[in-house]
Each structure stands twice: as C-alpha cells, then as structure tokens.
Amino acid sequence: MVSRNKRPEHTAPPEIYYNEKEAENSHIIEIQTKLSERALELLALSEDNHALILDIGCGSGLSGEVLTESGHSWVGIDISQAMLNVAKERECEGDLILGDIGQFLPFRSGTFDGAISISAVQWLFNSETSSQNPVKRIRTFFASLPRPLKLALQGVSLLTFPTAPEPKSRYFMVLNVGVVRSLPQAMTSDEATNETVTMVEQRRRALNKLRDVRKSGKCPKKSAAWIKRKKDLARRRGKDVAHDSKFTGRSRGPRF
C-alpha cells in the first residue's frame, strides 16, 4: 500500500507500480478518464476528422477508450506488461506496444495526427538503476517525439483550475503540430469546487449511514465486533479461521 504523501514515481518503477491492482482502483480510473477527456479537448481536432492518435503510457487503455468513444483510432505504448494485459482483457480497440519511452519511440515518420500522454512523462525524471540517466532519457523522448507526428512541434503550457487550491491544479503541456492552435479556456475553480462539494456530500452520507447503523443496535460493517461475529459464524460452520488478537479489526499500516 502506497502512502498518500508520496507520488507514485517516488515509490517504485512504473513497470512494478502499475499492476493489476492499480488498474482496478476506481479513484484512479475516474481521474485518468477526466484527464484523458481534457487532453483530447486540448488536441483541438476537428469534429469530423478521424485521427490516428499515439497514446504514450497507455496503461490499461483508459485514455484509449476516450479516444475510441470520440471516433479516433489509436496506438498505445507502455512499459508495464501487467497493464497491457489488463488492456487486452478489456478488449481495447487500439494496438498495444510494450516499450520504454525513455529509450526511443519506435514509429515511422509522420504516422500520427497527434499524441496524448496521461501521467507518464514524469516517470522519465527518475532513475531506477545506476545506468539510467534522467536527463538523457528526457532528451531522447522529446527528440524522438516529433518524428512520428506529421509536422514539427511548438510547445505551450496550460494550467487547469488556476484559482483552485494546489491539489486541484493540473498542468498540461501542449505541443502543437505545425501551427499554434487556439486552446480551450482553462477550467474555472467553480468546477473544482463542485468536485469538493460532491466529496463532502459523499462523506456526509457515509456518516449518516454509520449513525443509522449504530441506532439500530447492529455492528457497523468491517468493525472489530462485526469481524468477530463473522469469524464465530465461520467457526460454527466448521471453517478454518484465524485466531482473534488485539489487532483484529484494526487497519494495517503499509507493508514493505
């Protein structure tokens, strides 16, 4: 279990961190989908244009599904075989390639109409082995990125939720192909506020549900008393159950 105070790239290499368990995280799925929708919006593709998009760090295919739903074809590259396996199980429509973007992008010149990358490029700033040079890997990536695209690159940056608290602020690096396109306006902090209100409402409902359970005299689900009652029931049914201890029902800390 990863501490909330640590960024993913500070905990383990991407091919280890991104596994089947991470692919099933509902919170991650929601965030990645929203970021993908925003990235597609920033591409500023014409609505009637069926484009071929490169998904850099495609993972389990969440961003690719956004591209598919928008009528585009895509090719995804990722360093994690586990995540690509999940993408295959989900029957994503894009083509999947196992590769390290810090070494080279193995595509022909002028293949793609655009490229998106969600939560992938920051991994290039880390060195997982003594032979890896982050500066060299970053240079290699950005040097090889223009080639598979149809024209040269020009870069700008865009901040989403500019007036919102820092955790809600999200930076998008936009590399324009050929000419500088007009970018969509930054999202207002009202949308960030709406997300916060939704989280507060969910927390309030959970507390109300817990209060109702306590009034009914029943044991709250997942509590120590609830767990012991379930274990007693399993013992009466002849099942092999672990012994109770002072740690029964307590949340466990992160494992090494």
From TrEMBL:
Residues 216-238 have a biased composition (Basic residues). GO terms for molecular function: rRNA (guanine) methyltransferase activity. Residues 177-253 form the 18S rRNA (guanine(1575)-N(7))-methyltransferase Bud23 C-terminal domain. Residues 213-256 are annotated as: Disordered. It is found in: Cytoplasm; Nucleus. Keywords: Cytoplasm, Methyltransferase, Nucleus, S-adenosyl-L-methionine, Transferase. This is Methyltransf_11 domain-containing protein. It comes from Hymenolepis diminuta.
